[in-house]
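Lab manual, section 2.4: Encoding a predicted structure.

Procedure: take the sequence of the chain (297 residues), apply the prediction step described in section 2.3, and record the output as structure tokens. A sample record is shown.
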Amino acid sequence: MLKRFKLSAKFTLLLAVVFLAGMILSWFALSEALQSKALREVVSKAQILLKTMNSVRQYTIENIDKNLKPLLGPHSRFVRETVPGYSAREVFEYFRRDKDYKDFFYKEATLNPTNPRDKTVEWEADLVTQFRNNADLKEVGGVRDTPQGPSLYRARPIQITNEKCLACHSTVDAAPKSMIQLYGPANGFGWKHNEIIGAQIISVPMAVPLAKANQAFQTFMISLIGVFLLAFVVLNITISVMVIRPIVRMSKAADEVSTGNLQIPEFEVTSKDEIGVLAMSFNRLRRSLEKAMKLLE
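Recorded output:
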């Protein structure tokens, strides 16, 4: 004997399966979309900051260095504010004073720098090596772990395309004496024209964008669960009222008619849908059976 399994339970199970499948698909799709959006946001910030620092460098070359040196004279002391890399780094340090940007980082990492603070660390030296080994490589990026969390970095090569740079970095004898007094004669010399000597590196923390993405994800998923649960309850009630109950009543009436009880009233037809058509058919069947019974009598 087949075990009875109520139609309402089948509908509930089906809706539950659809609900869970929809939640799982939404979970993966939305999570991927928000993570990608957060990554694009961070990349956009990094590229904007790189362009900003390059603008500072260009302004230093075209205005500060160009206009200040003639005023100082040919034998003037070395003024580090006329160095594009130094100006860009200092401007960025002012930018980092804002607490919202204190974990941002900019460096013109150099293999053999004049200023010790520009010396490459291990992972930065690897980036410079990539650029030196591939002259066509214009930008690289990735994500690295830091004490503050994951940080996205973008790097571009620093190449000596302006021969004026060699006035300070070719040999110790050619360099300004005041620069040597400031930084010493050990580093920052031997550079060559068109040589890649370092990399512009900007690091943007991903913690805030990822936190925003996770918050948006949680809010959306909670809302989606609420909508699904509401739809689940409404559909269950609707199916129960419009389908299950009429079928149960017809089933009971059919049982009564099958035992010879023809005194039960006809179903009231209140709709023209499938349930209404079924009720009309049941009423015709009952009337036909009643007539047949009278003819037999």
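Check your result against the sample. The chain has two domains: 7-21+215-296, 33-205.
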